[in-house]
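Lab notebook page, bench 4
Experiment: in silico fold of construct C2
Operator: M.H.
Input chain length: 113 residues
Purpose: comparison with the prior construct
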Amino acid sequence: MKRVKLDQYEQSIEHGTDFVPVSGKRRKKIETIIASANKNKNINIRISANDIARIRELSAAEGLPYQTFISSIIHKYVAGKLIDENSLLKSMQLLGMETAKRLNRHSKPKKSA
């Protein structure tokens, strides 16, 4: 294994953690586990012909192969980053209405006595 010379900052990181050297055999096992966890898995699913046609249209508009597009959608969903645009717009409208109501309450001219 090639030794890498660490600069002072890198050394401070290495010495500031609970780093425990592992044997070659154990290191190989750990690397195998990590590689396995990062591997892509193939799946088979049934999707209606209409949905596939629409997915192909949308993926073409994005400039992506449709399988990559599907994978991207799934990844965004599990990462909590898939946003339903209609729900978002509805929420924004509701918030806008609430803000307008609050502003309207505060901007009404005071009655003179």
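Observations: Residues 85-107 form the longest helix (23 residues). Helices lie at 8-15, 24-38, 49-62, 66-78, 85-107.
Next step: discuss at group meeting.
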